[in-house]
Protein 1
Amino acid sequence: MKSSIAKLFKWVGIALGGLVSLVLLTLGVIYLITTSRMKQTYAVPSHPVAVSSDSSAIAYGKRLSQMRGCTDCHGENLAGKLILDAPVVAKIYTTNLTPGNGGIGGRYSDADWERSIRHAVGPDGKPLLFMPAQEFFYLSDTDLAALIAYLKTLPPVDHVPPKSSIGPLGRILYLTRQMPLVPAELTDHASEHPEAPTPGITVEYGRYLSTGCIGCHGQEFTGGPIPGAPPDWPPAADLTPSGNLKHWNESDFIRAMRTGIKPDGQPFSQQMPYQTLNAMTDDELKAVWLFLKSLTASMPSTGR
Ligand code: HEC
Ligand code: HEC
């Protein structure tokens, strides 16, 4: 009797030991694969943009840095901050873009700015983590030049952001394509930058402006859980005609985007960055509205 219990314990021990080794081995493989993907070098064809320093370009560039979300992630003064603080997933710090101590502004050439912003590839050819260049790949040369012109005027802010770290869950989410950790993998770097549509109140220009909504509202604008967001974030709203904006009109939309208050009197949750999107002009918001209206309705409304 005694020996059979001992035998049982022995087998349970072996099974548990096997399980633990299997988990460790799997984690080891996950770390190896993800680390090698994060360290891969990318060759990006150079694409010179003519950066002027006239004051209207700089003012437009400043507006772009807000409405395109740079300030949401890099901080109001663009000196970098902690944007994801969930160690099991990741701790992600954004870069200090100013020429201050710990910032890259002072040593970046125009080509470095272009490669980082449109390709998420750093001057050393290594991918920039979580920097959503798949959205900025579409920026027109004019817009990118204005943005760079503005970034070059940033006053120095001394701030050395700590190194980001990616935890086991973050690596699993990345491998299973639920977290856009290496945006450099999401664009074909050799392809031409598409020509941007002429500014105006048109569906095409609205689509161009709305690429910045995709990271949260999804490729089809149907909303849902935001990839890589902490679990306490609400899902993004469905912006298609049959979704959350079904009963809104253009002025409801503009008023909500300006004030952060929806037509039913409810405020946006704080994750919806209307304060920075507010940098859009009325005409730009009208173009976005036209574009959202032009989307094919999402699948049967769930009455959300
Ligand atoms: C979703 C958050 C997010 C948004 C939006 C964002 N960035 Fe970033 N960006 C990051 C992170 C995170 C890094 C750091 C990447 C790293 O350290 O690997 C980064 C890195 C950079 C770098 C590279 C600096 C270096 O380390 O060499 C530049 C330049 C940059 N961002 C510019 C911009 C500009 C300009 C915009 C707006 C058009 C923008 N970013 C929008 C998250 C963001
Ligand atoms: C950083 C993530 C993020 C970005 C970027 C973002 N949104 Fe949102 N948005 C959200 C979240 C989360 C909600 C849902 C929470 C809420 O309704 O308060 C939301 C809700 C909304 C709503 C309200 C719908 C409703 O009734 O609930 C509108 C309108 C909207 N977004 C428009 C936009 C547009 C247009 C853009 C791009 C120009 C954009 N958003 C970019 C996160 C984002």
Note: The mean pLDDT is 93.
Protein 2
Amino acid sequence: MRRTRNFIIYPILLLGLLFFSCTETVIPGSNQLDIELKDAIKATAALVSGEASLDYYVLPDPSDLDAIPQDWDKNPLNPAKVELGKFLFYDTGIAVDAKFESGKNTYSCATCHIPEAGFRPGTFQGIADGGVGYGIRGENRRRNQDYHPDDMDVQDARALSLLNVAFVKNTFWNGQFGANDANIGTEALWNEENGAITNELGFLAIESQNIEGVHVHRMDINKVMADEFGYTALFDEAFPEYPENERYSQTTLALALSSYLRTLMSNEAPFQKWLKGDYSALSFEEKEGALLFFGKANCSTCHYSENLGSNEFHALGVNDMHQIDGFSSSPDDFRNFGRGGFTELESDMYKFKVPGVYNMKDTPFYFHGSSVRSLEDLVDYFNDGVKENPNVPVEAISPKFKPLDLTVEEKAYLVKFLEYSLRDPNLKRYKPETIGSGLCFPNADLQSQVDLGCY
Ligand code: HEC
Ligand code: HEC
């Protein structure tokens, strides 16, 4: 009797032990490289958040609105706002304040922030009002001959990506938007000329910027338009607390756009899958690249926030838009001076915000002046650690920007990590199927209509 019981019990115990030891230490598909990479990422997360956990870099699911950073006080997310913003971001019907008749109803926010281009323009400089053409991913956008360059809606800097923008504390390359974080104490500098005057409304950065943005990008909405495009019910559901005479306005337009933007997460990128335990999501080369990013290549000393950017400002001495002949660009534009163009402090001159780096492969234009045109060249720029812009004094260059001594192989690994691990291949999910006005989108000039198959 006794013997038989042991005969049964021992193997069960043994199996149990094996099972537990399996789940405890040997995770399927994980190897030494995964363990090393986890340690490196956890060490960075610990420095930033105080907690040595991979979870810090796991982006929320866009449908989990409560998990998304937002302005709980003045623009809490709700599904109606997000849905409304998703239409309005693309709707050429609201492009009614064009400079000339031929520009009217031809552009949208997505003209310069194209999902297929990683929410950036398809060309080195975004052109909304005053541009024509689309191509396949915005790469054939050019000047509308009716417009003088000074009449075009163009900026003296490349459009930033909007992916994971919910994690950006102060928006713009110079961080001028938002009354929060880096801008505490800058109140005297908020004015009509730089547009930061909207910070006085007390919203967080994205909302503050977009209230200015819809005006700058020549868009508007009112009750008549909302009715005509079928958006009235969504406005009512999204903004019940606004009295009816204020509910269909540039402000609520901006708040709906902001809500939609906050849901733009690159949560389907392979690196995200790896963080969540799918160790086969990255190749050997990509893992080596990630290890470099969080280690020897120093990238994470600046790119350490959830979006792999940060709210730090640094001078890398890259060229400005006027040095590559951008439209309506000038050596005197305040945008060339980065944070210093806003704060007017000598110590902030030529320092730009550390941008997020997901979906960089989608358009080949990098840095605020689009001066670098491939990820290989970008990695070379960081590896060499030498400024390219003669106007930026050597003393202004960030002490964290210095030669890296990476081997040819290591540079290739780093490029692979940027190209594939950090690329969400399914950004199309953020695009609406149709828009309320029924016009072509994201552009609707004649050439774009042909390019986009609206004709
Ligand atoms: C003409 C092209 C263009 C259009 C149209 C455009 N943007 Fe932008 N966007 C830019 C540029 C350029 C920047 C960076 C400007 C800077 O920092 O100096 C930017 C930056 C942003 C940022 C800040 C991102 C960050 O990380 O700091 C947000 C948010 C944004 N745009 C939202 C919008 C919304 C919403 C619309 C529509 C109302 C819009 N944009 C239309 C060109 C454009
Ligand atoms: C000193 C801080 C710092 C370090 C270190 C650093 N970066 Fe950056 N990175 C920045 C800043 C600031 C910018 C924007 C500079 C500009 O446009 O003027 C930037 C821009 C980028 C961009 C282009 C983003 C865009 O929207 O154009 C990529 C990609 C990038 N960095 C990747 C890396 C990689 C890879 C490394 C490591 C080899 C690295 N960075 C190291 C601060 C840093």
Note: Residues 109, 111-113, 126, 128, 153-155, 157, 159-160, 162, 165, 168, 171-173, 206, 209-210, 213-214, 217, 219, 257, 261, 335 surround heme C (ligand 1) (CB under 6 Å).
